[in-house]
User: What shape does this take?
Amino acid sequence: MQATRSIRLPRKLSACRLIHNHSILRSSDPSGRTTSFGFRTVPEESKESLVKGVFDSVASKYDLMNDASSLGVHRLWKDSFVDTLKPGRKGPLRCIDVAGGTGDIALRILDHARENYADRETTVEIVDINAQMLKEGFTRFKKTMYHNTPQVSFHEANAQELPASQFKNDSYDLYTITFGIRNCTSIPAVLSEAYRVLKPGATFACLEFSKVNNPLLSTLYDQYSFTVIPLLGTILAGDRDSYQYLVESIRKFPSQPEFAQMIRDAGFSTGGDFDGGAWTDLWGGIASIHTGVKI
Amino acid sequence: MSQARSFVALAASSRSSSHAATNRKSRSVHTIPRPKPAYPGHIPLTPFENGFLAVGSALMSLIDTRRADMVAACGETTAGSTLVKLRDIMLESPEGRRILKEMPRINSQTLDLEKLRSLPENTFGRAYVGWLDTCKVTPDSREPVHYIDDPELAYVMQRYRETHDFYHALFGFKVSALPELALKAFEFSNLGFPMTALSLGASIRLKPPQRARLWGEFVPWAARCGSHARCLLTVYWEERWGQDLDEMKKELGVWNPPAGITIP
Assistant: This one.
C-alpha cells in the first residue's frame, strides 16, 4: 500500500521546495521543433516556461477570473464532470488529478464519494507543474475537512513525465485532467503517462474547452472570448496578456474527434466518434468531457 | 534620448499585432481582426470594448483605489475629445509646441535627481526632489498609455500622467486620498479630463470630516485656481528646474491650497 505523502506547503514557497521534478526546469536542448503558445509559434522548449509564467501570474486570481469570465458556469461543468464519473460508487478509488492546481475537481471527487457513498477512503493526489497554483489549492483545502488527512495530497510534477518512482505503473483507478491538457507542450506525452499510471480497466477523463460547431454560437463565443475575457483579465487581474493566451490556446486545441483519436492512439478504448460516445459536449461544445478506459 | 520619440517614430515601423492570428496553419481561427498597434504598448479597442473598459475600470478604481492601472485605463477610455483640445492648446503656446516637438519623457533615466538635490532651496527642482524623498515616490511609477489610438494624443496623455507628480511638487501635496482628490479636482478645472471629475466619486470612501473638507475647502480652491491658471500641459517643467517656486506660481497663475494636505 503506497504511503500517500501530504506535503505541507510553507507560506513562502521559496523557503523549501516541494517534491520537485528535475525535468520541470530541464536545460533547453534546441530541437528545432516548434509548438503553439496561443496564436504565437514558439520553440517547443520554451512553451513550458511561458505557460509557467502565465500560471504564476494568474494563480492568485484564478478562481475569481473563472467565475467572472464564465459567469459561474465553470462550476456547472465541473459538477457535471464529477457526476458523470461517480467516484466511490464501486468502492474507494485511488485518483490522480493532474493539472489540478487549485483543487476544484479533487474537492468535488472527495465530496461526491463522501456524500453519496459515505466513502472516506477515496484519495486524490493533486499534481500540478506550477507551485503557485498548488499553493492556492492547498490554501483552499485548509478550509475543508480533508486537510491533514490522507485523502488529499499535493505534488509538483510535469504531466508529461511523472517521476516513475513516485507515480508507479498501473496504480490509479481514476485519472482526471481539467482545463489543463491544452497548456501542455505534448498532448501525446501526457496521454501516454496517463496510460502508464492507470490500472487496467481504469478510467481516463478529461474536461477541456473544445470546438463549438454551431456557427451562431461559435461567433458569439468568439466575440465574447476575444473582447470580454481579455478585458476582464485587465480589470480584475491587471493582466491582459495571460488571458489573451488562454483564449487563444482554446482555439489551438484539437477538435473532439481529433482528440478522441489521440486518446485511442495512447492505448485507451473509447466510445464511438459522436457526441455521447467518446466525448460529451457541454454547452454546445464550449467544453467537452472525453473519457477512455485502459484495456 | 531614444525614449523621446518612441510614440510617433514606431508608428511608422510595421509591427504585427500580437492579437491577430499569426499562425495560418491548418485550421482557420476565428478571432477579432485588430488594427496594428500604432506604438509600443498600444492596444486598439472597438467602441464596445472601450465602453466596457471605461465602466469596468471606473468601478475597479473605486473598489481598489490602489489600482493605478485602472485609474489610467479609466482616464484613457473616457478621454474623448479632451486630448485633442489639450493638444491644440499646447500648439498655441511656444513652450507647448516645444514639448510636442521634443516629446520629453519623465522617469529615473531621463531625470538627474542628484543634480536636482544640489539646487538652491526654494527652486522648483529642489522642491520636486524633496517631495519625492518625503513621500517616498519614484518617477518610474507611471503606467504606459495603451488605449489612445493616435500616437501624438497618446503622448499628450503620457505627458499628463508623468507631469502629475510635478503638480504634487508645485503645491506640495501629499500622496494620501484627500490631497489626491483635491489635485484631481484641480486637474479637472485646469485640463478637463472626464476621469478627474469621475474620480471625485471616490470621495464617498473618505471619512465624513475629510469629505466635508474636500468639498467645502479644496474643491472651491481647485475650481478657482485651476480655471485661473494657464494650462499646465503647456509648461516645459524640465526647463524650469532652477526657477524660484514663488515666482513660478505667480507666472503660472496658481496659488497655494488651504492648509492641511501639503508637506511641511
In short: The beta strands of chain A are 34-37, 40-43, 94-98, 123-128, 152-156, 172-178, 198-209, 268-269, 279-282, 287-294. Chain A is about 40% helix and 20% strand. The CA atoms of residues 88 and 113 of chain A lie 5 Å apart. Chain A touches chain B at residues 36, 39-41, 218-219, 222-223, 226-228, 231-232, 234-236, 238, 240, 244, 248, 251-252 (CB under 8 Å).
